[in-house]
Amino acid sequence: MAKARAAGLPNATLMREALGLVEARRRKPVPRVDPKLTFAIARVGGNLNQLSRWINGAVKSGHARQIDALKVVSQLVIIERQMAQIVAAHTGGGE
Prior knowledge:
Layout: H1 2-7, H2 11-18, H3 35-61, H4 69-91
């Protein structure tokens, strides 16, 4: 059981691998992140997705003249970069 924990595998998988029945895939451990941060990023990501769909729909339907799509898209890029910085700062990737 200790070997399985050290390998980051379930006991059954480690035993199957030892018997040569399967070859276990090694996975990187999932970083610990505050659930509130995850929820907030998911909400912002969902909103960004809705805005992007709206812009794409306006462009496809010919209503892009009614909105300043370039300004909206540039703001979306800024928000996306800020989100990436927030995630990096909270997962140790921004050091």
